[in-house]
Amino acid sequence: MKRRKFLMVAVGGISASVSLPALLRAQTQNQVKIGILTALSGAQAIYGEQTKRGVEYFAKEVNARGGILGKPVEIIYEDSVADPATAVRKAQKLVEKDGVKFLTGLSMSSEALAISPKGPEWNSLLISNITGAGALTTTAFNRNFFRINKSAAMGARVTSLYLQDSPMKRFYGLGNDYAYGRDAVASFSKQATALGKEIVGTAFPPVGTKDYASYIIRIKESGAQGCYFALTGGDVPIFFKQALQFGLTRDVKMILETLDNKYIDQVGDAMEGTIGSTRYAYTIDTPKNQKFVAGFHAMHNVYPDYPDAVVYQGLDWLAQAIEKAGTADDLEKIITAWEDSTYEGLEGSLFMRKCDHQVVQGGYMTEAARDPKFPHLVPKILTHYSAERVTPKCRTENFD
Question: What pTM does this model have?
Fold first, then answer.
């Protein structure tokens, strides 16, 4: 009786004969639920922490302006632990139990590759904000998947273009032993070789490697002038600090597939001079990014990194697609509205390609450098390449 009275008060006098499931369905229809499936614990938790910050900034902003289609946004978090099996189980819970139609936040490409095929079956959308495996928009593509970020091949493309006129001729490739690491090294090797460079060796340590000594020795003995590495999360500072101890950073140019702010923060001054492509940098000089950086810093007291920024962009673009479709429930209408749409992003205009749901965007090459306006190293922008040069041909990882 107490429970029934509570429900009557909560819904403003609705008849007590209305069942609890009906009430819950009514409440769900008045919200837009978004599931954030990310690594909140474990070795890749840094990605989850950053993703969560970007989501919180989006939720505060979108609800302050009245939600989506006049409905408030509800965020539901689940910890994927960066494990594909756990990610699939948690994603299914979000869809089937929590009534979520929109999933984002995954930290690892292996998770996305496991979940993406489930989208049509679950009638849900999976939105990539950092996963870089090429297969997601090529061989494993389906219409319930959208990638808001650059792929690993796009990052390798930016780096290859930058190194084209470099006097460095010999390179070593180091990538984590999973889809992203292997994709990035393979793409860089192919593109660098086409430019007349030599790949003198490659290696693929497991995710979570603690001792890189044997890999560092191989790189030193290879005669490489530059080391291109596509490591993930906590592996980057571990490798970099050990490389510094062995003198590798003195003798070999360090080149990151994506030069993230978190790596600069974790490694510190020893990273000065390291170069790499980036999926986002808070130093990008556009009015929208300046506003975002100021608001984000005021909220979190840190500068945004690429997971922060790209998950924000992805959700904001999703909101735009839902508004255009006029529904938060009909996925076919939302997909159609999102395809071949443009979005004014933090770095400029972005385009969502219909044929493979890969965002078409330019690419920045950056360097960990000093700036008199900051007490620490910043991702200094060295150059920018147009979207036409950086985005591969549809459903491929080829650029020519």
Answer: 0.91
